[in-house]
Design goal:
By secondary structure, the chain is of the alpha/beta class. It has one domain: P-loop containing nucleotide triphosphate hydrolases (Rossmann fold, 3-Layer(aba) Sandwich), CATH 3.40.50. The chain has 7 helices and 10 strands. The longest helix is centred in the last third of the chain and has 18 residues.
């Protein structure tokens, strides 16, 4: 398959995925035989009780953890079988990740934080910062570009994190409780922004959340229980 993602093919696919954690003599099966397709531009919520395996699934789909068994396919390639360097390159090219705690670099401005994925792939700084400035404007933070994370509110920091996830024009964005630390009003605003950018960029969005109100506004909701998708 070419690097161009066919519209008839899932942008992200999980096949027979299992994850077992070893704790001394105890084995804990967090995920068991999961199959999942995410289509281009799709909006999918993943819900379930704490400890059900939601975040573990998202981490594996993002290539930040390895499955015990099974495969993850991203943009037509077996992502989980790649070595660390090619996996990092493919993740940078096709995938954006939004953390609950935003994980911005505190010593850098909002502009540099957003530009960082482009700088990592060695785009010229001026070009990277231009793209970052456009994304900051899109999330309503053009006037905060020079501010560091410590000078921003929680909602502003999360909007910077969303801009950073989208600056590479990824095929899919994975978001792990991106509104979990926000008040209801700010949570709704951040969620609405994520959906608006989904429409504008065409990136699929996979959202792990405890908020059933937000999950109900996605196109599809999947429930994980006992390591399996119900």
């Amino acid at each position: 398959m070419s690097e161009q993602i066919a519209h008839t093919q899932p942008v992200l696919a999980v096949r027979n995925l299992s994850k077992i954690y070893q704790d001394s003599a105890l084995e804990v099966a967090v995920l068991q035989g999961i199959d999942l397709d995410i289509n281009p531009g799709e909006r999918v919520a993943i819900v379930g009780a704490s400890g059900a395996g939601k975040s573990s699934l998202l981490q594996i789909m993002a290539g930040l953890d390895k499955p015990t068994e099974g495969e993850v396919w991203l943009a037509g390639k077996c992502f989980s079988a790649m070595g660390e360097r090619p996996r990092g390159f493919w993740r940078n090219k096709h995938l954006g990740f939004v953390y609950q705690a935003h994980h911005l670099l505190p010593e850098f401005s909002a502009l540099t934080n957003v530009a960082m994925p482009l700088l990592i792939r060695r785009e010229p700084r001026a070009q990277a910062e231009q793209k970052a400035a456009e994304l900051l404007a899109a999330v309503g933070l053009a006037n905060r570009a020079t501010h560091r994370p410590g000078e921003l509110s929680g909602g502003e920091r999360q909007r910077v994190a969303i801009a950073r996830a989208l600056v590479t024009r990824p095929s899919v964005v994975l978001a792990d409780e991106p509104t979990g630390n926000l008040d209801t009003k700010t949570s709704d605003a951040v969620f609405a922004l994520l959906m608006e950018l989904n429409e504008q960029t065409g990136a699929a969005v996979v959202l792990v959340t405890h908020d059933m109100n937000l999950a109900g506004r996605m196109e599809r909701t999947l429930t994980i229980a006992d390591g399996r998708i119900e």
